[in-house]
From TrEMBL:
Record Pfam families: CBM_2
InterPro entries: CBD2 (IPR001919), CBM2/CBM3_carb-bd_dom_sf (IPR008965), CBM2_carb-bd_dom_sf (IPR012291), Peptidase_S1_PA (IPR009003), Peptidase_S1_PA_chymotrypsin (IPR043504), TRYPSIN_HIS (IPR018114), TRYPSIN_SER (IPR033116)
UniProt cross-references to SUPFAM superfamilies, sorted A to Z: Carbohydrate-binding domain, Trypsin-like serine proteases
Name by which UniProt lists this protein: Cellulose binding domain-containing protein
PROSITE patterns recorded: CBM2, TRYPSIN_HIS, TRYPSIN_SER
GO molecular function: hydrolase activity, hydrolyzing O-glycosyl compounds; polysaccharide binding; serine-type endopeptidase activity
GO biological process: carbohydrate metabolic process; proteolysis
Length: 509
């Protein structure tokens, strides 16, 4: 029997709308036989850059986060295939230990099986049987949610979909004597789970334009929050800061802590706790140290979030209290209600966020010391942490992307040397598309002098001198907005970290 930590998905107290979100939840595995395949061991990590976000994270947590990069690549490739079609037997996907697990009811369709095979070039993938599909459980959860929503004073406040496909959980908080309501019969297993309600959190000090993420935002009368990330609209190039919608209404005039005007809230989704502040200019950095030291990290792009993934948050009040980001935040599940938040847990039992951290940046950390935008802080309860993911910002506000070093932010490449020997090496490449759908792609980069491509998979790879071009295969010609594809190659010589890497001629992060 294989034992795994339970990772689930929740429907919160509120009107439930939409279909089951794909690729964001996992649950307890059944154990027993399952299909797995390994990938070559990763090359040793490079020396850590001094004075970066990596220095602010406990080493054991930092190393686990960096080790998850290839797992996120793997999950993203599978998730892209899932979202390209109907949900079918899909139940969930997530990071479990040193591998990715996909839960599926019934036999894998050919397109999903092909994606799993491709993804296994990056990291191991386990395919587990699900008793119910996510769509089946969502239908049952909607009926339970009507009862849970009926009386705000009772103990029930959420319905979780266990996305190993095994059943549902109703969250209850019996504080102050609240009673658990009678629940209707369900055709799937249902159990009640004690859990405190999460509370919203609202409140470095004197930033200057171009404005950065993680700075303290102020509005009259005496209300403070934290900026999330500098973003831009790909279609208009308009710059914005993002933050939590409960921080301010449309038309709110924001200042920094010194009183300098920052910008005005011009777009807002109150249900999703997401808003956009129009500003003259934004930076490609976020604050990651204390409130006075000025330590920043460069934003390299954005990431989908998966259960089991470790993240950090850099709200200003937590920074004031600790001098560092709050990390070791493990994603547990996504809500499917009108809020559609993501919940995580601080694994050391520490305070996940503090009043005034709302709207602040939530992010993944890379081995290079850069960060990937994952979302913004909404609420917390002790070690419990709720945030809105960046993918939902894109659903709400269109083709927005974090501002990155080259200013484009429309693509990102994970270039991982997975094996090396005296005369050559192997690389897995994952291409993320942060912009509009790409139909037909070619990726360009340079090998070191005397290096020669010797083998490839999932792409046609050609070489002229040191210049290399990888062109899509027939089955992976489209990279959907927010999606990813993977390919790999072997080459002679010594590996390098190529820069720039271009997608259809445009530099990628």
């Amino acid at each position: 029997m294989v034992h795994m930590r339970q990772l689930s998905r929740t429907t919160r107290r509120s009107a439930v709308a939409g279909v089951l979100t794909i690729g964001v939840v996992i649950g307890t595995g059944f154990g027993g036989s399952h299909a797995t395949a390994g990938a070559p061991a990763a090359a040793p990590a490079a020396a850590l850059p001094a004075g970066s976000v990596l220095d602010r994270i406990p080493p054991s947590v930092r190393d686990r986060m960096i080790a998850q990069e290839k797992l996120v690549d793997t999950a993203s490739v599978v998730r892209t295939a899932v979202t390209a079609g109907a949900p079918r037997g899909y139940a969930g996907i997530g990071l479990v230990g040193d591998h990715v697990t996909l839960w599926w009811k019934g036999a894998l369709p050919a397109d999903i099986a092909a994606a799993v095979t491709a993804a296994r070039h990056i990291a191991p993938v386990s395919v587990q049987h699900a008793a119910y599909s996510g769509s089946q459980l969502k239908a049952q959860a909607d009926g339970l949610a009507e009862v849970v929503d009926a009386d705000p004073a009772d103990a029930a406040h959420g319905v979780r979909i266990k996305t190993d496909g095994s059943g549902l959980e109703v969250l209850v908080d019996t504080a102050r004597g609240a009673k658990i309501p009678a629940l209707p019969k369900s055709v799937v297993p249902v159990r009640t789970v004690p859990q405190k309600r999460l509370e919203q959190r609202s409140t470095r000090l004197d930033d200057v334009a171009p404005w950065s993420g993680g700075m303290r935002l102020y509005r009259d009368p005496g209300y403070i929050c934290t900026s999330g990330f500098g973003v831009r609209d790909l279609s208009t190039a308009t710059p914005y800061l993002i933050t939590a919608a409960h921080c301010g209404d449309l038309g709110t005039e924001w200042k920094d802590w010194s009183g300098e005007p920052v910008g005005t809230t011009v777009q807002r989704n109150a249900d999703h706790d997401a808003e956009m502040i129009a500003v003259p200019s934004v930076s490609n950095k976020i604050y990651v140290g204390g409130v006075e030291d000025g330590v920043q990290a460069r934003v390299a792009g954005w990431t989908e979030v998966y259960p089991g993934q470790l993240l950090c948050q850099s709200g200003t009040v937590s920074a004031e209290a600790t001098g560092a980001p709050v990390c070791n935040l493990e994603v547990k599940f996504h809500y499917t209600d009108r809020e559609e938040l993501v919940e995580a847990t601080q694994l050391d039992g520490l305070e996940a966020a503090r009043g005034g951290d709302s709207g602040g940046p939530v992010y993944a950390v890379t081995a290079a010391g850069t960060v990937l935008a994952a979302g913004t802080t909404t609420r917390t309860a002790g070690a419990g942490f709720g945030f809105q993911d960046f993918a939902t910002y894109r659903q709400d506000f269109g083709d927005i992307v974090p501002v990155t070093e080259d200013g484009t932010g429309s693509c990102r490449v994970s270039y991982q040397v997975t094996d090396a020997w005296s005369t050559g090496y192997t690389v897995n490449v994952t291409v993320y598309n942060s912009g509009a759908d790409v139909n037909g792609w070619h990726l360009g980069w340079n090998l070191p002098d005397s290096g020669q491509i010797q083998g490839r998979w999932n792409a046609d790879v050609t070489q002229t001198g040191t210049a290399v071009t990888a062109t899509n295969a027939a089955h992976n010609a489209t990279i959907t907005a927010g999606g990813a594809v993977t390919f790999g190659f072997t080459a002679s010589g010594a590996p390098n970290t190529p820069s720039p890497i271009t997608l259809n001629g445009v530099p990628c992060a």
